[in-house]
Design a protein that fits this description.
globular, 5 helices, 7 strands, alpha+beta
Length: 182
């Protein structure tokens, strides 16, 4: 039980924690979250980070006012490696754009968190996020929804998974830095 308790309380919300986003990185709280269609899934409500490593692990997404016909009035967690960050200073993608995605270019939208590989059905299936109620069970449920077939939970390796690879979040951003908080 002590291990489960430690796991359940290892992540904190950035807001109210005494930590802040590192210098040079945008504060994405309040930014729109959009899917590959360009439709709004919600807004970034907060970031969940691991105090020990000071690395952001999840985006807390408020589904209010979404354009995907999802139930409003709830928040869900999306691992940082699933999303991509675009700011108003980013340049239009050209060479790596798949023609199927040309209808919406988040680089032209600016100041948006983009979920290129997440469907409305997956977002809708994500468990409700409740502050201080994140458990390994909930984290595995999130992983199973976003990556069916991966059922392994290894406490020591969990955040080394591609879903938590912050390089994807910042990969095209001109001022790439660590996703740490200070």
């Amino acid at each position: 039980m002590a291990t489960d308790e430690r796991i359940a309380h290892r992540l904190e919300e950035l807001h109210g924690s005494g930590f802040e986003v590192v210098d040079g990185q945008p504060d994405i709280i309040g930014w729109n979250v959009k899917t590959r269609s360009g439709k709004k899934a919600g807004k970034v409500k907060d970031l969940l980070f691991e105090p020990e490593s000071r690395k952001v692990r999840y985006l807390v997404i408020d589904l209010g006012n979404n354009e995907l016909n999802l139930e409003e009035g709830r928040a869900v967690l999306v691992p940082i490696g699933i999303a991509e960050l675009y700011t108003k200073t980013d340049h239009r993608r050209t060479s790596d754009v798949d023609p199927a995605y040309e209808a919406y270019d988040p680089a032209e939208d600016g100041n948006v968190v983009f979920l290129p590989d997440v469907t409305a059905g997956q977002i809708d299936a994500l468990p409700l996020y409740e502050k201080n109620h994140l458990s390994p069970h909930v984290e595995m449920a999130i992983r199973k929804i976003l990556e069916p077939g991966n059922n392994r939970y290894d406490n020591d390796e969990f955040y080394r998974h591609e879903q938590f690879n912050d390089d994807r979040f910042y990969h095209h951003h001109d001022h790439h830095q660590d996703n740490r908080v200070k």
